[in-house]
Amino acid sequence: MKKIMLLGLCLFLLPVWINAEEVKKEEVKVFGVYSNKRSPDNHYIPSGWMGDYGDIKINDEFSANPHSGANCIQFVYSAKKSNNQGWAGVYWQNPANNWGAKSGGFDLSGMTKLTFWARGAKGGEVIDKVIVGGIKGVYPDSDEIGMGPIVLTKEWQQYTVNLAEKNLSFISGGFGWVMNADSNAEGAEFYLDDIKYEADASIKPEVKGAEKMPFYVYLDRGSVSNHYIPSGWMGDYGDIKLDVGSLEDPYMGNTCIKTAYSGKGAQGARWAGIYWQNPANNWGEKPGGYDLSNAAKLTFWARGGKGGERIEEFKTGGLFGEYSDSDTASIGPVILTKDWKEYTIDLKGKDFSSIIGGFCWATNVDVNPEGATFYLDEIRYE
């Protein structure tokens, strides 16, 4: 009799056990970053504010027109450069404020994509890059994957980061975005919703080839075709004033780049320069850049404010670190004239399969004792 009762109890519990397993399997197919304010499915916290963090305002329970549910996340980026960086971004971290100093994060092995919904308040807002992983430190993320740039529309649109065959065994930086003041000159207001990892067996590994030519470093202020950011200020960086939206007689389009170098020696180096980098402030310590194997040359137009300004070197590539540039090439010194003139850096025979430092100039006070004002435009690989 006891055996019969025990058997009956097992048969009664069996469907419950099977359903629990089905729920468990279903849960591992989706892993949330953000779905709604205070949702138990939110596994990361938007605590990692970067760059001009003073330019960012967040409302993570914005209730007007969410993509789904009761609310979404509103970001307002003023682009005022409050921390003198020219860019800003936010990482969703686990635990909060974890830049790799703490054990945390999740094993997301098996997830093949991250999806999210986004829209702009006006349309045309530019997010330079969306990031998965990439946290360094004592407990580094197992991988870093990026996607972008993204030009937002006024309507909700879904975006996907391909994670197939990526190492997601330890991810404390679950999601992040970066944008810059050059691409969003008047600031940007945008919204995010339904950020989640998914295990989708149909997603195949992304195969990235060499970029198509022409490939721009700078086309016009705010252009989505601009692939590098002038974030790498060097030497007497306090002597430099940079305007990437100058209206003073651009060579082509609406704007050009104006640089004023005072030569006063603010940092005591007696020289100064700027690297255009991808991503911003990347000196080779993190993955980024582009495969520019198809490029035979880099061309750009330049002129001096008075004529006679001397630039010691114009350069591409040459950054060293864990993720070094694959090669480098340069010209110089160059004596500028008052009129626009095209210059060319020959890349034939160079290995440009991975370039983080897309463009660079450097000069010094010895050859410009009164400083130098000069202009650049149409910087591109061909």
CATH homologous superfamily (4th level) name of the largest domain: Galactose-binding domain-like
Query: What separation lies between the terminal Cα atoms?
Result: 86 Å
Radius of gyration: 25 Å
**Unreliable residue runs:** 1-27
Measured by DSSP, the beta-strand proportion falls in 35-45%
Instruction: Tell me the CATH topology of the largest domain.
Output: Jelly Rolls
Number of helices: 1
Number of strands: 26
Structure description:
The longest helix is centred in the first third of the chain and has 26 residues. The strands form 6 sheets. Strands 1, 3, 4, 6, 11 and 13 form a 6-stranded antiparallel beta sheet that branches. Strands 14, 16, 17, 19, 24 and 26 form a 6-stranded antiparallel beta sheet that branches. Strands 2-5-12-8-9 form a 5-stranded antiparallel beta sheet, with no helix packed on it. With 382 residues, the chain is mostly beta strands. It has 2 domains: 170 residues, Sandwich (Jelly Rolls); 167 residues, Sandwich (Jelly Rolls). It contains 1 helix and 26 strands. The protein is globular and about 65 Å long.
